[in-house]
């Protein structure tokens, strides 16, 4: 089955992103497809490469990156939510005159249309948030 | 058309479980996860409402129960415990999913 996943909460703030990750992993393990993971609202904070959690804690950002790489996931960060919270890729850095970028491996910044498309093209849209 | 309703809030914090039960039709499924698993405990003020929802099947996510110290004997009757693979199966088996976040 074709799933899409929406994550509305940031890492280390709420269990939502942990639940979304565990669900995604279980779905992939069962042979299902995840056509997109869309990070919205504070969920965009899952896509920064500047986090350094303690070594004995889970690294939520890296965990997403690794899952994305292993399964070629399309992990999309909402652009408007990202601009508000300082999640920046090369294009956004240039467009907004910033001097750095911090988008984590496997994530890309795009618009809300990607969520709408995911809702239409997937068979189930799973929403995780607060 | 069956619906899987997912509830992730404690019923003692938010009204999402009660709201969900107001909408859940016969034949639908309710999965409690995260703090939502507190709604699966027996003897609480919420347990009666859950028991009164006839024709609705209730599930609770095992890892979230375990994280909160809710063992099998503390669960209300009729609650089925599932793992994440079971969560995925519920999403597949029902025709749609409604997240009460």
Describe the structure.
The complex is a heterodimer of chains A (130) and B (101). Chain A contains five helices and five strands. Chain A has 130 residues and is an alpha/beta fold. Chain A has a single domain (2-128), classed as Hypothetical Protein Ychn, Chain: A, CATH 3.40.1260. In chain A, strands 4-3-2-1-5 form a five-stranded parallel β-sheet, sandwiched between helices. In chain A, helix 1 (16-29) packs parallel to helix 2 (60-71). Chain B is of the alpha/beta class and 101 residues long. Chain B is built from four helices and five strands, in the order E-H-E-H-E-H-E-H-E. Chain B has helices at residues 16-23, 47-52, 62-67, 84-93; strands spanning 3-7, 29-32, 57-61, 79-82, 96-100. A five-stranded parallel β-sheet of chain B has the order 4-3-2-1-5. In chain B, strand 3, helix 3 and strand 4 (79-82) form a beta-alpha-beta unit. The longest helix of chain B is centred in the last third of the chain and has 10 residues, at 84-93. The A-B interface holds A 1, 3, 8, 15-16, 19, 22-23, 25-27, 29-30, 32, 124-130 and B 6, 8, 33-35, 63-64, 83-85, 87-89, 91-92, 96-97, 99, 101.
Produce a short descriptive summary.
Chain A has helices at 16-29, 60-71, 79-85, 90-95, 113-121; strands at residues 2-7, 33-39, 75-78, 107-110, 124-128. Chain A has 130 residues and is an alpha/beta fold. Chain A has a five-stranded parallel beta sheet with strand order 4-3-2-1-5, with helices on both faces.
